[in-house]
Amino acid sequence: MELFNHLNQENLLPFSGEVNYFPNFFNKAQCELYFKKLTREIDWRQEPIWLFGKQIMQPRLTALYGNPDIPYGYSGIEMNANPWTDFLLDIKETIEQIAQIDFTHVLLNNYRHGKDSMGWHRDNEKVLGTNPTIASVSFGTPRKFQFRLYKDKTLKKEIILENGSLLLMKGETQHHWEHQLPKSNLVKGGRINLTFRKIYP
Ligand SMILES: O=C(O)CCC(=O)C(=O)O
Ligand SMILES: [Fe+2]
Questions:
Q1: Domain count across the chain
Q2: Do residues 17 and 151 make contact, with C-beta atoms less than 8 angstroms apart?
Q3: 192 in ligand 1 pocket by Cβ < 6 Å?
Q4: Which one of 45, 76, 117, 185 is most buried, counting C-beta atoms within 10 A?
Q5: Does the beta carbon of 145 lie inside 6 Å of ligand 1?
Q6: Is residue 2 part of a domain?
């Protein structure tokens, strides 16, 4: 029996997946620097998605960076990755040490205020492999992040993703649990999230 994983972190999920939370993974100075750079230097766009047969604009800004020549389809849109920048590589290398995986891409989300959000979904696309490790880094205003069991949507777990935190989703998480970043009337400030992924072309 495995009592602890290698990081000695507790699992946020009760079963059928593994989620570890690391608050203050980045220090205050790094948080300020990265939030500024992410705001100014990323090629942010508001992209349309297809939802129930209708094309609507996503309620957030997005961008994709990563290794060249690996196209990445996401929610019905094919995004071409921008090449890595120096500071994105710095962040990637820092989290690769703890995630113990070489990531090929990062999907960036810019939630400009509390009305920006991301709805319930699983990151279970074929190109991510069977049990993807996804590393989610947050900068800026804290936001609520929720999980619910795919087969019993009344079973929920939630956590506040704080400035400078890292959330690792691993194992069978993407098979059995959906996640979302709900809208909030209370949140005024902006938040930028990076989800590092490994794509198997
Ligand atoms: O903003 C977040 O914390 C979640 C982002 C997410 O779930 C995704 O990019 O797939
Ligand atoms: Fe996701």
A1: 1
A2: no
A3: no
A4: 117
A5: yes
A6: no
**Amino acid letter, 108:** L
Q: Is 124 in the pocket of ligand 1 (CB under 6 A)?
A: no
> In angstroms, how far is CA 200 from the centroid of its own chain?
18
Is residue 10, in this structure, part of any structural domain at all?
no
Q: Is the CB of 64 under 6 A from ligand 1?
A: no
If DSSP codes are grouped into helix, strand and coil, which group holds residue 126? helix
Task: Give the distance (Å) from ligand 1 centre to CA of residue 1.
Answer: 32
The secondary structure element, H or E, covering residue 175 is helix 173-176
Bridge partners for 148 per DSSP: 156, 178
CB 178 within 8 Å of CB 146: no
**Residue at token pair 């609507």:** 56
- Atom number of ligand 1 nearest to Cα 107: 9
The question of ipTM being above 0.95 is answered as: yes
In a domain, 7, yes or no: no
| φ/ψ of residue 18, rounded to 5 | -135, 125
Q: Which residue CA neighbors atom 8 of ligand 1 most closely?
A: 195
